[in-house]
Amino acid sequence: MRIAAAVLLACAPAWACSCVGKGTPCSAAGISDAVFTGIVLDILDPPPPQPVPTAGPQTGRRTASQPPLPFPQRTIRIRVGEVLSGIGMGQQEVEVLTGKGGGDCGFPFQPGVDYIVYANKNADGKLTTGICTRTRTLADAAEDLAYLHSMAGAPPSGNIRVRVGTPPNPAKADETLIAENSGTRYAALTNGAGDAVFNGVPPGEYTIHSQTDGDLPDDPKTQLHAKGCVEVFFQRTLRISGRVTTAGRQPVPRIEVQYRSTQNQPGDTAIVDADGYYKLRITKPGQYYLGINLNNGPSRFVPYPRWYYPGTQAPEQATVIDFSGKPEFRAYDLTLPDPQPERIITGIAIAGDGRPMARVTVSALDFANKFAGQAFSDQNGRFTLNLYTGTSYRIHAVMPGPGQAVSAVPQDVPAGSQPLDLTFKLDQPGNSVLEAIQGRLGVR
User: Fold this and answer.
1) At CA 86, angle to CA 85 and CA 87, rounded to 5?
2) From CA 313, how far away is CA 316, in angstroms rounded?
3) Which residues, in sequence order, are CB contacts of 422 under 8 Å at separation 6+?
4) pLDDT digits over 253-298, tens only?
5) C or N: which end of the chain has fewer Cβ atoms within 10 Å?
6) Strand partners, 98
7) Is the CB of residue 134 less than 8 Å from the CB of residue 28?
8) Which of 97, 141, 142, 103 is nearest to 122 (CA)?
9) Are the C-beta atoms of residues 289 and 318 closer than 8 Å to each other?
C-alpha cells in the first residue's frame, strides 16, 4: 500500500507536477474524502486569475509582497453513479475541481465519459482531484470497480498497517502497538516482519503508540478515510541536542554537527544555529560517533580537524553513542579546538616529456575521498592549493581533455605545517579523481 502525493512547485508563471505511486484502490480510498463513479455532464473553465491590487507604483512586475496568483481550477459537473464513500445518499450530481493541466496536476476530464473519481476536500470544503490520484476512466478501472463492488454494503471502517521494522533491522514479533482515535484505543501485535495491522477500525485521525514506550509527543499520526486502508511507518528516534562552543564558551554558528556509525557509515548532519545550538535525529539502532567533520574534511567554512565528542581527534578515545531502539532524548555539548591554520601547497604539472602543462585540474581529496580543495595550473604549469595543517590529503592532477583523460600518480600529503612544492608528471591514462570517487561510492 503506497500513498499518492503531488508536489506543486509554484513560481508563476512556471508550474510543475510530479507524482509518486498511486497505490491500490484500498490505499487510495484510505486517503480520499470521497470515492465514486459518474459521467461528466459539463466542464466550466475558470475566468483569468486577477491579482490582488497592492499599494505603490505599478511596474507590471510582481513583487515578493504580492500574493501569488491562484492556480486556475476547472469545475467538473458529474452525474453520480456508484458510491464507495463521501457522497450523500440520494445525491445525484456533484461538482469536482481540478487544474487545467500543463503542469498543475489537473486531470483531463472529457464530457460524456464515465470515470471513477478519488477526491479530497480543499480548504473551502470543495472536492478536488488530479492526475496524482487513482482517478481514471471506467474503461481502465476494473480493479477499482472490483474493490468498490466488494465493499458494497460494508461498514465505513478500514484498516491501518503500521510498519515498525526497516531492513536490515526488522522489529520483534508480538510487540503491542496502540492506535488511538478520540480517546478510544485499539491494540494489535506485530508479526514476524514487524508489521501490526488494525482491521475494521472506524475512519478518523489516529495516533500510533507503542505500549512499551508509552505515549510520546512525536508518535506518528495518520488519517483513515471510510472503506480504505493506510500505511504508517513507526520509527523509534534518538533525539540529540546540544550546543557547540569554543574553549572560551562562545557559540560557533553555521557549522555542521554530524554523526557516523562505528562501522564507518556516514549519518545525517545538523546546522548549528546563531546561538550555537543543534538538533539531530537517529532512527536506526546501532553505535555512533558524534562530532565535527566526521563525514568530510575541513573546509573554508568549517576549518576544524575531524573532532569527536567529547573532545578528541582519536576515535578510540571518543564516546560511543549506543542507540538500542528505545526512544530517548540526550544532550551532548561540543567544545571545539582552535580552527586549523591554512596550509599553502604549491607545485607544477608537467607532461611526460617534461613540458609544463596549463589548465590541469589539481584536486585534494580528504580521508573520505571527498573534495577538500581544488586549483588549476597556469601557463607555466604552476598551481597553489589552500588546505589545512591538521589534515592529511591525497592530491590528484588530471587533464580531463576531450578524449582520453591523463593523470599523474596521486601523492599523499600527511598532516603538517611545512610548505611543500610538488611535481606531478601526467603520464597515466585515465582520471584518477573519478576512479577514487567511484571507489568511495562502490561504482565499478
Assistant:
1) 100
2) 9
3) 345, 346, 347, 348, 395, 411, 413
4) 999 999 999 998 889 999 999 999 999 999 888 999 999 998 877 8
5) C
6) 74
7) yes
8) 97
9) yes
Domains and CATH numbers, the chain: 6-47+71-150 (2.40.50.120), 158-233 (2.60.40.10), 238-335 (2.60.40.10), 342-441 (2.60.40.10)
171 Cβ neighbours under 8 A, 6+ residues apart: 164, 165, 190, 194
Q: What is the pLDDT of residues 203-239, one digit of tens each?
A: 999 999 999 888 888 889 999 999 999 999 998 889 9
CA angle 23, 24, 27 (to 5 degrees): 80
Q: Residue written as cell 597556469?
A: 378
Spatial distance between the Cα atoms of 293 and 303, rounded to a whole number of angstroms: 9
DSSP conformation class of 370: -
C-alpha cell of 55?
Answer: 499599494
- To the nearest whole number, what is the mean pLDDT of the chain? 87
Q: Which three cell numbers stand for residue 314?
A: 582519536
Asked whether the predicted pLDDT for residue 437 surpasses 90, the reply is no
Residue-wise DSSP of 150-205: HTTT--S-EEEEEE--BTTBPPPTT-EEEEEETTEEEEEE--TTSEEEEEEEPSEE
Distance (Å, whole) CA 109 – CA 98: 9
Match 486531470 to its residue by C-alpha cell.
Answer: 107
What gap in Å lies between CA 362 and CA 155, rounded to an integer?
69
| Cα→Cα distances 49→12, 74, 129, 225, 423, Å | 12, 12, 20, 33, 65
Q: Which three cell numbers stand for residue 2?
A: 503506497
Q: What is the pLDDT of residues 102-111, one digit of tens each?
A: 678 899 999 9
Cell of 312: 578528541
In sequence order, the β-bridge partners of residue 191 are: none
